[in-house]
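Request: Could I get any protein with tokenized structure?
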Amino acid sequence: MDALGPDWYLSKVRLQITDVNDNVPEWSMAPYPYLAVVAPGAGPGTLIKPPPQCPDLRVGGGGGWILIQSPSPLLCSCYGGEGCFAVDKRTGHVATTGVLLQTNGEYLLSVVAVDGLGSRSAAAAVSVVAGPRAPQFTNSTYSISIPENTPEGQPFSVVAAVSFQKQPIGYSLLINPSSLFSIRPDSGEISLTRPLDYESDPRRYLLMVQVAITDENDCIPEFLQSIYSVDGIPEAVTTATSLLQ
């Protein structure tokens, strides 16, 4: 008889250790810095959204501005904004409260999120303007490397910006060393104006690009008068002579 008795059995137990989510929640909004606009007369509950033409990174419904990466449930809170904005604690979406907004006024919000383990995110600063605002680049900086045999006139990089008013954008170079670079005003494509020589040319350049909303001719041509007339035209007047303006 076994010393352990007749009711002794051998059982095999497998244990699997799972990873505890000890990572701090991280914001996943784009682009940075976090800028937004809202109509001055926006009613309560109007979502503050990313600029148009930006990638939609929403993790929940509604497409609201505040988005965060964390597998755990989150509780979000919002500070600042003069009481004009509030954050949905569960989704993180920021919306207007109905408090009257000052036209062209800028409101600075600070949003934080805490996950189920108590890990607190860094504060996300959001600037909201009640009205139009200047375009925003999708990247705050660009680092580009190009081979010295890059052909003249061939685009080697593109800078991109978005318009909060959904208007056409124009690009120009404010800093352009030796006029070596050119940029297409309508697309932001950057190219060389002459060939490079790695041995003789500087190997690092700093460019500064300006972006602005361009004007489109959306005005219908109109005559200043409904009827034009002129008297006393000489019989000998020659072709292409201006008679009236």
